[in-house]
Amino acid sequence: MNLYDVHRRHCAVPAFEKAPLFKNRVLNRAIILKHKLRGNELEMFDSHVGSATKVLLPIDAADLRAGAHFFFVGQKDFEAVTEEAFGADLRPGARDRNVLDQIDQLPSLDPFLLREYLRRSGIEPAREYFNISDADVLNMQKFVQMDIQALSTLSGGDQPGMPSGRLVDKLLSPRPEVDFGPLREVLRLEDKQFLDGIFAWRGFLYYKWVLSDVMPRVDQTIKSMVSVTPRGVRDAESAAYIPLARARIVAAVRERIRAVQATLSTYDRAFHALTDDGKPGTFRDFLIESPHLFMSLGQRLGALQHIVSFWSYRFPRSKPVAVGYVDLMDILMDFEDGIALEGLEDDAPMMQRAVG
């Protein structure tokens, strides 16, 4: 999330100036990203974490080659570092600290989910921060409409046969606790459970849409990665590493996809239990467990998106792939680090509870 670029492009828009993401002007020009920690960065944290939210403060925002200061959310000296840089603006309880904490809790900076997550906490920055095109919004609405069409009669209460388009509007509305009142009564959920579950439900639908979009590009990326022949000087280390790494990455990507599909199928089974089998308890169990499943789902899809987006950026399809042995080894090492399969089995107990 390049906030400086967002500011540069939209600073003249009155609505944008009135609804900043961060009140602190320096922080509102930062670059924020989800970062896979390297070996030397792990020691910056008291506990073991695989990835963290990284905040970059460019020395010269107009020329990023000049470098940047940075900090990780949750690093050992986080309070001291942010106190020095931002004073009271990032102290616990401050408005900007709340926004940063909300961003840190999400598995990715997907604009759909970030906007909905912040809105759920009463934080509504200008739309320009989220860079969601009208085409993306329309495509997601169409996908969701098809996916939840079967739920119309139940969630509509005394409005059987409600058009699925209206149901989509209800699901994606900022007040689901009002719009889905009949469903909440059927499921007998407390306020927080219901709101957390509805948000995760939105997340599952969003990630189903993301998976349908990313899958064709995964296949293209894997095919290109496997077939590329490095150029230049061939050193023994990279020549030995590259073929083995490619095989490991392909296997890991396939396993990651299977894990994502297995998690998404948990939603499908719970949804069909509600709509086809008349078992609201199964969908209730899913909504209770879904926030935890949603976070791991986002991490796994994020790793796939990283591989696809970086490869397509580094090697556009319109140009032949040209890369040296050492550069290719570095790229594959980064992919291996991000696609690591540790913890893939951890969701099994939650998935079992989610479908009874």
Report on the structure:
The chain has 15 helices and three strands. The chain has 356 residues and is mostly helical. It has two domains: 3-132, no CATH class; 188-354, no CATH class. It has a three-stranded antiparallel beta sheet. Residues 155-162 have low confidence and may be disordered.
Please give the structural blueprint.
Blueprint: H1 3-10, H2 14-18, E1 31-36, E2 51-58, E3 68-72, H3 78-86, H4 95-105, H5 111-120, H6 134-147, H7 152-155, H8 164-171, H9 176-179, H10 181-187, H11 191-227, H12 236-275, H13 280-314, H14 325-338, H15 348-354
Antiparallel strand pairs: 1-2, 2-3
Helix pairs in contact: 5-11, 6-8, 11-12, 11-13, 12-13, 12-14, 13-15
Element-level helix/strand string: HHEEEHHHHHHHHHHHHH
Give the total of domains.
Answer: 2
Percent helix: 55-70%
Task: Estimate the global geometry from the Cα principal axes.
Answer: globular
What class, by secondary structure content?
Answer: mainly alpha
Largest beta-sheet details: 3 strands, antiparallel
Spatial order of the strands forming the largest sheet: 1-2-3
Into which percentage range does the β-strand content fall?
5-15%
Low-confidence stretches: 155-162
Please tell me the overall pLDDT: 82
Q: What is the helix tally? A: 15
Distance between the termini: 39 Å
Number of E strands: 3
Rg (CA only) = 22 Å
